[in-house]
Design goal:
The chain has helices at about 80-85, 110-115, 160-165, 230-240; strands at about 5-10, 20, 25-30, 30, 40, 45-50, 60-65, 65-70, 80, 90-95, 95-105, 120-125, 130, 145, 155, 180-185, 195-200, 200-210, 240, 245-255, 255-260, 265-269. By secondary structure, the protein is mainly beta. A hairpin with an 8-residue loop joins strand 1 and strand 2 (about 20).
Length: about 270
């Protein structure tokens, strides 16, 4: 695997909203810095994802000098000073679990509610009360996550995506799968066999293959659900193991620091 390279690095400041592509990123114990550090909750204090409200995919965000900036193509942006507005603690529901979070502030709430056409609030991870990665997903005692689904970091190879697209009537993009790291220079699905990865000075343990859901069937540009449930339907024909349709792998940081697209990457089986 001497030709293995990092093709793209992405993080998603707000869960289910648009990605930010970067050339370098800080690796923390819960993954990429600022990745899924924020989420939108509804009136029942449940985290909203694009599975429930695909309009989230229309929202882009950026973080600059301690400010979180939200925007869409149709609306004027709104910005929040993160050093001033993190206020009260709140218990929220994420899937079937509860988690501690911080209310970001009312500045964004009306903007989000209008954009999503439902009452919404923005919350941030509680840095002192992080979510534990579950043992059923191979999480260990000191493995924590932000508002990610299962594990801190998600990796896919470009070759795996190309192989999938060769089987589809209409190709999908990497953003149907929302990875943090895209690599190239390996065989399709070769990442399934890796046990650990070193990127520059950082080390990662491969925790499990990534189970896929209906999120993959939502077009990240149009926000429309595919009428034939693609690419999930095709993936199910050759990537199903037990009750899970897998595509890509999850990683847990074991040595933190920073990585860049120019770093050497070494994968071990």
């Amino acid at each position: 695997m001497k030709d293995l390279k990092i093709k793209n690095l992405y993080f998603y400041p707000i869960k289910s909203c648009q990605a930010i592509e970067v050339n370098n990123v800080t690796i923390e114990k819960i993954g990429f810095k600022y990745d899924r550090s924020f989420a939108v909750i509804n009136s029942q204090n449940k985290i909203l994802t694009a599975r429930e409200n695909p309009k989230l995919l229309n929202i882009s965000s950026s973080i600059d000098n301690g400010e979180l900036i939200l925007s869409t193509k149709e609306r004027t942006s709104v910005s929040i000073d993160l050093n001033k507005v993190l206020t009260n603690d709140i218990y929220i529901e994420i899937f079937s679990d509860t988690a501690n979070a911080k209310i970001v502030g009312c500045e964004t709430d009306d903007w989000l509610s209008d954009t999503l056409n439902e009452k919404s609030r923005l919350v941030a991870i509680h840095s002192e009360q992080l979510r534990r990665m579950k043992s059923k997903y191979n999480g260990k005692e000191n493995d924590f996550i932000s508002f990610s689904d299962i594990s801190p970091i998600h990796l896919i190879s470009e070759e795996s995506l190309n192989d999938l697209n060769s089987k589809l009537e209409s190709p999908v993009t990497i953003q149907n799968f929302r990875p943090n790291i895209v690599v190239s220079g390996c065989a399709a699905y070769e990442e399934d066999s890796w046990s650990s990865i070193t990127i520059g000075d950082c080390e990662f343990e491969v925790t499990l293959k990534t189970p896929r859901c209906k999120f993959t069937t939502i077009d990240p540009i149009t926000t429309q659900v595919h009428s034939k449930q693609e690419p999930l339907r095709t993936l199910a024909t050759y990537r199903k193991e037990s009750n899970s349709i897998n595509f890509g792998i999850y990683l847990t940081p074991k040595k933190i620091g920073a990585i860049s697209t120019t770093d050497e990457i070494i994968a071990a089986r």
